[in-house]
Amino acid sequence: MILNLFSGNANPELANAIADTLALPLGSADVHSFSNENIFVRINETVREHDVFVIQTFSSPVNTSIMELLIMIDALKRASAGRITAVIPYFAYGRTDKKDQPRVPITARLLANLIERAGAHRVLTIDLHAGQIEGFFDIPVDHLTAFPLFTHYFADRGVDDAVVVAPDLGTAKKARNLAETLGVPLAFIEKRRPVDGVGSEVLNVIGDVRHRRAILVDDEIDTGGSMLSAARILAAEGVREIYACATHGVLSGPAVERLRTGPFTEVIVTDSIPLPIEKQFPALRTLSVADLLAEAIGRIHAGGSVGAMFRPPR
Ligand code: R5P
Q1: Which of 76, 93, 248, 259 could pair with 220 in a Cys bridge, judged by C-beta atoms 3.0 to 4.6 Å apart?
Q2: Which residues of the chain have pLDDT under 50?
Q3: Entry pTM
Q4: How far is ligand 1, taken at its centre, from the CA of residue 225, in Å?
């Protein structure tokens, strides 16, 4: 099957970088909105029986990005594509993944249903908020992690006196993996409601962080609230420097101001979500997931192992 790459409008820079790495052109497609906000897609070249990868991250405007992907998949299906893989570097709505209150939706599941129903045969994504979201799909999901990029980033800079810190207990497993790979200790921030239920959450640091360089890790930075509270308590505990890293830099609302003015030496995210100039600030570093995605696309196309990309060398 011939390999074709297409991109929606969400992150054309990343799509171009993936295409460059694979030494392939991006396929020609018109994806635009009419004045009534209805999205129109036209695929301008044949895809009949081709192995098509549609690259579309769920970045702002999130719901438009989602609709563009669904409509592109529909157009490709109706154009007789042989296989369609939705390449979704950032899968939005991942935090709405359980019915933990009465009368609430499981939107991540709804989104999985929509992608499948539109006609995708496979999904390729990075650092889902919860691994279980993979199970919302009845089609194969290749779930990559950007954490090796962080490992290399910190290993190159030296990790003397470093400690990896999980900003909450939900992130503990990811933090532990990074700490183990870097060969440094692990600490956690524990959030606790006051016993009488009155007042705001109390944060405790579990682990030895004093005079160390703290590497805070999370899957995403949204409003920056979690990273800022974690950084403040770490600063109060006498850490030497604070690095905040997360795969997805959503950076919504007050995030940029919080990260710019907070006690961070560096804030490291990937380009899974585009970072326009107004979201940039001096301490921000961006690592690219283009090579990671390109490698996975190449392996999926060739029927090779994607898991082997993440196995430690023997
Ligand atoms: C939450 O469960 C996630 O892992 C992140 O901690 C969260 O999305 C960060 O959100 P914010 O930056 O708004 O605190």
Answers
A1: 248
A2: 313-314
A3: 0.95
A4: 7
